[in-house]
Amino acid sequence: MKRTKIPDNSKIYFYAVFRILIGFMFMLHGGQKLFGWFGGPGGNGSVALTSIYGFAGIIELIGGLFILLGLFTSIAALISAFNMIGAWIIVHIPKGFIPLTNGGELAALYFAAFLVLIAYGAQAWSLEKILLKKEFMH
Question: Per-residue pLDDT for 62 more than 70?
Answer without folding.
Answer: yes
